[in-house]
Write a structure and sequence with these properties.
about 375 residues; alpha/beta; five-stranded mixed beta sheet; 5 strands; about 55% helix; globular
């Protein structure tokens, strides 16, 4: 019997062999799989299809609608297949899925039920989950095979991946063509405006940490400080051992001297107190714990942060506005502004789909091109 890893690799090769040919003859099923895979609001659906179909191919005796091992006979652990095999598979092939298991999403978490079409999973958007349940029913009723469902899901994931890469490649080509024609680089204020427009786009919570990281990378030789490698967007500090969202060390040392915590909302006193608990647990003292926010900074909260220098024995706790931080940085390191912008672009494009969506990547390239050509696209 083939292992789940071998099944996935064999299936991937079959899907790649003829991307234009569906693995199932029923066009309705083809459309249903496409609907689940293409939905940008919820990438968990594609992982669900991969995990459940893989389990059924691996163990034909199971009921694909029972992805909870506590259901007894013919049941299986969908989460185990998802975490143990799907994560590595989608990472290896850069497929547009969530980076974490779909079985911890609100719709599937803490469930212990047979996933029939009558079930309301209460997930968003509802059509993704209704379609997912309908596809499980197709397999359970022997209308399609789990193997063909797996192939078809992978086929659509590859198609979407190639489409995404093609759009980014086209946008990058257009951007580079304009840069050859335009000799004058963007001013510091124009870059701040560009980044502000990008921050205003939907689902942009990952961007502040990329902004600060790009700033440190651009001024590396001048500051003699570097940003440590970024943790996954959805990884908790307790899991990674990190003090915050971004840690800074001296260039040739490993000791963290500055920590940044990013918020797309107002900083509260509770946020600061939680930071103090983390600071107090450290064996070695840091110099700065800095909050970066995209929201308003309340005077009373800032005053509280300012008062902590003495009580923390010299740890500076500060709250900075994200664009204000960037503006000051770019004017201070004016000659590094293009290096910052190129570095930020590289970080944005390198992020996985779960952290920075395709639409957000495309938005930045479109906004930058508009800013550099002086067109009105940036305001559209």
């Amino acid at each position: 019997m083939s292992t789940p890893k071998e099944i996935l690799e064999t299936t991937f090769k079959r899907a790649v062999f003829d991307l234009l040919k569906p693995a199932v003859s029923d066009q309705k099923v083809v459309n249903q799989v496409e609907l689940v895979v293409r939905n940008e609001r919820n990438r968990a659906g594609a992982r669900l299809l991969l995990a459940c179909a893989l389990a059924k191919v691996h163990k034909p005796e199971i009921d694909i609608r029972k992805p909870y091992d506590k259901l007894g006979e013919n049941a299986y652990s969908g989460r185990a297949y998802d975490e143990n095999f799907i994560t590595t598979f989608i990472t290896q092939h850069k497929l547009p899925c969530n980076s974490t298991t779909a079985f911890l999403t609100p719709a599937l978490r803490a469930k212990n039920i047979v996933l029939t079409q009558e079930v309301d999973l209460d997930g968003n958007p509802p059509i993704v989950y209704r379609t997912f349940l309908a596809l499980l029913a197709e397999v359970a009723d022997n209308k399609i095979s789990a193997e063909n469902l797996l192939i078809e899901t992978i086929r659509w994931l590859i198609i979407v991946r190639e489409e995404n890469q093609k759009r980014l490649s086209d946008l990058l080509t257009a951007l580079r063509t304009n840069q050859i024609e335009e000799a004058l680089p963007l001013s510091s204020e124009a870059i701040v405006n560009l980044i502000g427009q990008h921050l205003a786009c939907p689902q942009s919570s990952r961007l502040p940490v990329l902004i600060v990281t790009a700033a440190y990378q651009a001024a590396l030789e001048l500051l003699k400080e570097k940003a440590l490698p970024l943790q996954a967007h959805n990884a908790a500090d307790e899991q990674t051992g990190a003090l915050g969202d971004l840690e800074i060390t001296l260039l040739n040392e490993s000791k963290v001297i500055t920590c940044y915590e990013m918020k797309m909302k107002r900083i509260t006193i509770d946020d600061i107190n939680r930071a103090l608990q983390k600071i107090g647990s450290l064996e070695m003292k840091i110099d700065n714990y800095i909050f970066i926010t995209t929201d308003e900074i309340e005077a009373s909260v800032k005053s509280y942060a300012d008062s902590l220098y003495a009580t923390t024995a010299g740890v500076e706790v500060a709250i900075l506005d994200c664009l204000g931080f960037l503006c000051n940085f770019l004017h201070l390191f004016h000659r590094s502004r293009v290096r910052f912008l190129d570095g930020y672009q590289e970080l944005v494009l390198a992020e996985p789909e779960s952290a920075v969506r395709q639409s957000l990547k495309e938005s930045f390239l479109t906004l930058r091109r508009a800013a550099e050509t002086g067109t009105t696209e940036a305001s559209e």
